[in-house]
Specification:
By secondary structure, the protein is of the alpha/beta class. The chain is 30% helix and 11% strand.
Length: 146
């Protein structure tokens, strides 16, 4: 049954697994989205897991393994950080990742990225990080980074 589902998905989705070799000749960047305590650290907030979650832990560990070569090679990294004003609700979600709190910080295992010149951390105050970075003159911080 599982194999049938996987075969069906492979037919419908244009996703192919191949090896990826990164060299200095390729322009490449890494984008991290909302890898913050408020979503990934046990009991760190209203939307954080209440107990150790294997999927979240494995995801964060994989992101660390992916981010490390970018750090080592000084390749660009852009990290969206969920960060909300305490008095502006974001329905249907409860208050979460309030600016200035531990919830809105990168998970501890990735905090080494915070002081790197090749890393751009941007706090977003809405669900859509792309829209969050539209500037008054209509430019977009993320598009400019890309």
């Amino acid at each position: 049954m599982v194999q049938q589902i996987m075969d069906s998905l492979k037919e419908e989705l244009p996703v192919f697994h191949t090896s990826l070799v990164l060299t200095g000749d390729v322009k490449i960047g890494l984008v991290l989205v909302d890898i913050v305590n408020g979503f990934c650290t046990v009991d760190a907030g209203n939307l954080a897991p209440t107990q150790l979650d294997k999927q979240i832990s494995e995801m964060v560990d994989k992101l660390v393994r992916v981010a490390r070569p970018f750090y080592d090679r000084k390749w660009p990294v852009f990290a969206f950080l969920d960060s909300h004003h305490p008095y502006i609700p974001e329905p249907p979600y409860p208050p979460h990742c309030i600016a200035g709190t531990n919830e809105a910080k990168l998970v501890p295992i990735l905090q080494w990225l915070e002081n790197e010149a090749n890393v751009k951390l941007r706090r977003k105050d809405c669900i859509d990080g792309f829209l969050a970075f539209v500037e008054k003159e209509a430019s977009n911080v993320f598009i400019n980074w890309v």
